[in-house]
């Protein structure tokens, strides 16, 4: 955001504010019409005072000196994990599932959280809408192909959820998006977790789940296509899921997150997503939800 000195503009245009917040210009007009964002009308033109916008972005619940730690919590995504390292953005990761990430974000213990919570009509929106969050934004990361991971050539007839009955299946931690989705898919197939031989150890990440199948510890796991390719497993696609980043609005403008998103626009990043497979990145960076 521009500094408020004599060499910088005192006002932002509607387009500049939209770019800053990563929303459509129409959303900025709506915020101004509802007097929810600081603005002025000068010679008939809508303008936004830089200092007032800075204060508005910081929000009343984020006073100076009360910054969140540079920690990304929530669900594990191998492309995101790689991008954090390759970009050198400095974010630390604490991946223990979507529900844990949402809880840590609510408490202020994380600057962002990766989510893929299945809902009746999509992913993540209801969960964040009902969490009582302020000064928060949900930004899309990727659509991922998720399905069953089974050992190549030895899947012994596993072609659908119904074929998991009596099989050894990797267990994910409670509250993980994959665990919630597994329950729903089993129900749709007329099964329950009691019909499976669930592993004793929990798979906390996508790579843990794939490694359990590759090692022969389980017959199958719910996982993403990128991990099936990496571990040379067979992949049975079931759903396309939205993996999103819940981000503190003030923290979004800090160097770690700005550096990460700048890196996500490079050719090297796109090439990596293509090589991993199972990712649709066309809507990366779009705003899916914005707190009031």
Which structural traits does this protein have?
292 residues; eight-stranded mixed β-sheet; 11 helices; 33% helix
Provide a compact summary of the structure.
This protein has 292 residues and is α+β, with helices and mostly antiparallel strands.
What's the topology here?
Blueprint (H helix, E strand, L loop, with lengths): L10 E2 L1 H8 L3 H9 L6 E3 L2 E5 H9 L12 E4 L3 H10 L4 E4 L2 H10 L4 E4 L2 E2 L2 E2 L1 H5 L6 E16 L16 E5 L4 H12 L8 E7 L2 H9 L5 E5 H6 L2 E16 L6 H9 L3 H10 L2 E2 L6 E4 L2
Parallel strand pairs: 4-5, 4-6, 10-11
Antiparallel strand pairs: 1-3, 2-3, 6-13, 7-8, 9-12, 9-13, 9-14, 9-15
* Rg over alpha carbons: 21 Å
Measured by DSSP, the beta-strand proportion falls in 25-35%
Number of strands: 15
H/E element sequence: EHHEEHEHEHEEEHEEHEHEHEHHEE
The geometry reads as elongated
Which structural category do the helix and sheet elements fall into?
alpha+beta
Main β-sheet description? 8 strands, mixed
Structural overview:
- There is one protein chain.
- This protein is an alpha+beta fold and 292 residues long.
- It is 33% helix and 28% strand.
- The chain contains eleven helices and 15 strands.
- The strands form four sheets. Strands 4, 5, 6, 9, 12, 13, 14 and 15 form an eight-stranded mixed β-sheet that branches.
- Helix 7 links the parallel strand 10 and strand 11.
- Helix 1 packs across helix 2.
- The longest helix is centred in the middle third of the chain and has 12 residues.
- The chain is elongated.
């Amino acid at each position: 955001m521009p500094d408020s000195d004599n060499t910088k503009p005192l006002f932002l245009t509607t387009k500049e504010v939209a770019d800053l917040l990563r929303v459509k210009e129409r959303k900025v007009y709506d915020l101004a019409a509802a007097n929810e964002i600081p603005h002025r009308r000068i010679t008939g033109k809508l303008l936004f005072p830089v200092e007032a916008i800075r204060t508005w972005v910081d929000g009343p619940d984020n006073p100076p000196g009360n910054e969140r730690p540079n920690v990304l919590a929530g669900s594990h995504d191998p492309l995101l994990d790689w991008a954090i390292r390759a970009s050198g953005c400095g974010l630390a990761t604490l991946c223990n599932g979507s529900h844990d990430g949402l809880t840590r974000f609510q408490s202020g213990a994380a600057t962002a959280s990766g989510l893929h919570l299945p809902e009746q009509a999509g992913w993540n929106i209801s969960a964040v809408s009902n969490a009582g969050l302020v000064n928060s934004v949900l930004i899309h990361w990727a659509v991922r192909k998720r399905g069953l991971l089974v050992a190549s050539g030895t899947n012994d007839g596993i072609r659908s959820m119904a074929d998991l009955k009596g099989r050894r299946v990797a267990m994910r931690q409670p509250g993980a998006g994959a665990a919630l989705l597994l329950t729903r898919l089993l129900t749709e197939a007329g099964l329950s977790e009691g019909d499976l031989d669930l592993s004793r150890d929990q798979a906390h990440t996508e790579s843990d789940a794939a490694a359990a199948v590759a090692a022969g510890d389980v017959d199958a796991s719910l996982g993403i296509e990128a991990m099936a390719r990496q571990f040379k497993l067979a992949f049975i696609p079931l759903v396309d899921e939205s993996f999103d980043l819940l981000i503190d609005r003030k923290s979004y403008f800090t160097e770690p997150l700005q550096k990460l998103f700048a890196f996500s626009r490079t050719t090297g990043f796109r090439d990596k997503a293509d090589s991993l497979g199972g990712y649709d990145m066309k809507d990366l960076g779009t705003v899916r939800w914005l707190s009031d």
